[in-house]
Amino acid sequence: MDICPFTNNYAGDDSNMVNAKEQSRVPNTTGIVLHRAFLYDLFVWLVSLGRERAYRERALDLARLRPGEAVLDIGCGTGSLAIAAKRRVGAAGRVH
User: Fold this and answer.
1) What is the mean pLDDT of each run of 10 residues along the chain (96 residues)?
2) 81 C-beta neighbours (distance < 10 Å), count
3) How many CB atoms lie within 10 A of CB 6?
């Protein structure tokens, strides 16, 4: 049976509920991309035939970001999109 990553419980098993203190514990994890960021960026550059920056800017165009807005970037590569988004939302905006 799979363990639910949010509660450290078995998914769907209410009989094994844990208290709030146990739920707040963060499991130890390692990210493959975080340890190989340069290789990831190189791979994306190669696959996009050097047009990764244009794709990133187009994605931001489609998002229609405005100065002062907030952006949440979860698991979207090495952060290059978040950096470009911060330029769009400016000093008054936030990128998490």
Assistant:
1) 48 51 62 68 90 92 94 84 94 93
2) 20
3) 8
